[in-house]
Design brief:
Elements: H1 3-28, H2 32-53, H3 62-84, H4 88-103, H5 106-127, H6 133-151, E1 157-164, H7 186-194, E2 197-199, H8 226-233, E3 238-246, H9 251-265, H10 274-277, E4 281-289, E5 298-305, E6 311-322, E7 325-334, E8 337-348, E9 352-356, E10 365-371, E11 378-383, E12 386-395, E13 398-407, E14 410-421
Antiparallel strand pairs: 1-11, 2-4, 3-14, 4-5, 5-6, 6-7, 7-8, 8-9, 8-10, 9-12, 10-11, 12-13, 13-14
């Protein structure tokens, strides 16, 4: 075991001890000292056994994660009960709702509060309104997670690789945000870190160098409409009008995400409605050309609101080849990491181009990666259930695009683009 691994294991045991002590104190009622000691011992044992049995490339065992989530829920339930005086049904429903929301899958979002309320109702029948909120919350979360595991067998995320070199994962874009904010100045800041020639708002540049780089058994670039090809290879010649189409079920959650995550982060800040898009959308590509090279090394497609330059998307577009196929990987930098969408090109009837993550091939998909700032090693999770498809096509002589997203088979957003050639100035 390396010193770094030993340090992480010790940190994990310390966190388990503190979490267990707080949970034990919350659950024990009138004997918090004894409860804290028992809770700390139980969580330390759970952490030690789980880590000892954990194999390389695996996340901690499911049962240990459930125990930890129950311990955290006990603390939250105790605090919520003290602050609000809520009864067991309300506490259980709230705890289940939070656990379900963290599951992301729409079915889990719906199941969480229902399972939590049922646990709270059982506590009310057994102990009345004075049922301990810490125990109610812990029971609700553990019960929900056990039920969800029975109903939904496929994993939500999977540990794909741990501390590997970037060249081992060609479908991951290994570029992170080096601060807590991404924003429209990301490529400039990246150039300062990497070196090379930075070109803001580059002229006559595309998000890909050539569609020919994407050729493969399933896709012949020669069949693409010239206007579609021009858009990909000379994206800056065009401007985009966006009409977002959100499904109603996802809007409340997205509003919270946008307020507390997307805007403070300066990334993935999609408009809520067409009224917002009337502010105008500015589209530009910033590039970095490595020293001793004439070829662009980094293409950052930056979309922002025209009136304030508030970022909508900051994406790094790359292409690569594997097994005689071309792929597009789009990396969205986040602090110390990257969310990458790797897409397979396919033909669309009428000369259009489809980029999709839906494929039985091993590379297409979505990946969340932590990038070690010192070694540049990657630890990557596969995000199962998230899917997207981008259709770019010509309709009645006009360039259009539909960008559809789904979560576990449930569509939640389609971005409809009308793409116009910029007027010559």
């Amino acid at each position: 075991m390396t010193p770094e691994e030993r340090g992480k294991r010790v940190s994990g045991l310390v966190f388990a001890a503190v979490t267990g002590a707080l949970a034990g104190a919350a659950l024990s009622g009138r004997r918090p000292g004894r409860g804290a000691a028992f809770g700390a011992a139980a969580l330390i044992a759970t952490e030690a056994v789980s880590r000892a049995r954990q194999k390389p490339g695996e996340i901690p065992a499911w049962w240990s994660r459930v125990v930890m989530s129950g311990a955290l829920a006990a603390q939250a339930g105790w605090l919520g009960g003290r602050l609000t005086g809520a009864g067991p049904v309300a506490v259980g429903a709230a705890a289940g709702a939070v656990a379900g929301a963290l599951g992301m899958r729409p079915q889990k979002v719906a199941l969480g509060p229902a399972a939590g309320a049922a646990a709270g109702a059982a506590w009310r029948l057994a102990a009345g309104r004075e049922a301990p909120p810490a125990a109610v919350a812990a029971t609700a979360v553990v019960g929900y997670r056990a039920l969800a595991a029975l109903l939904f067998r496929d994993p939500q995320v999977g540990l794909l690789a741990e501390r590997v070199r970037p060249e081992e994962l060609p479908f991951v874009v290994p570029l992170e945000a080096r601060s807590g904010y991404v924003g429209t100045g990301y490529v400039r800041e990246l150039a300062e870190a990497l070196g090379g020639t930075y070109q803001p708002d580059a002229a006559d540049v595309g998000i890909v160098a050539s569609l020919d780089d994407l050729a493969g058994p399933q896709f012949d670039p020669a069949g693409v409409d010239p206007l579609v090809r021009e858009f990909y290879e000379h994206t800056t010649r065009f401007r985009l009008d966006i009409v977002p189409e959100w499904r109603l079920w996802v809007r409340p959650g997205y509003l919270l995400y946008r307020t507390f995550v997307a805007r403070p982060l300066g990334q993935a800040n999609v408009p809520m409605n067409q009224r917002e898009t009337l502010r105008g959308v500015r589209s530009r590509i910033d590039t970095i050309t490595p020293e001793d090279s004439d070829l662009i090394g980094v293409r950052g497609w930056i979309r922002s609101f025209a009136d304030t330059d508030e970022p909508i998307y900051v994406g790094i577009y790359t292409t690569y080849r594997h097994d005689d196929r071309g792929y597009v990987s789009v990396g969205f930098p986040v602090p110390q990491g990257n969310f990458t969408a790797t897409l397979l090109p396919e033909p669309r009837p009428g000369g259009g181009l489809v980029l999709t993550s839906r494929s039985p091939l091993p590379h297409p998909g979505h990946y969340l990666t932590f990038i070690d700032p010192e070694t540049r090693d990657l630890t990557t999770l596969t995000v199962h259930g998230f899917a997207e498809q981008l259709d770019v096509y010509v309709k009645n002589g006009e360039l259009r695009a539909d960008h559809a997203f789904s979560l576990y088979g449930f569509p939640f957003l389609v971005l409809h683009y009308t793409i116009h050639r910029k007027s010559r100035s």
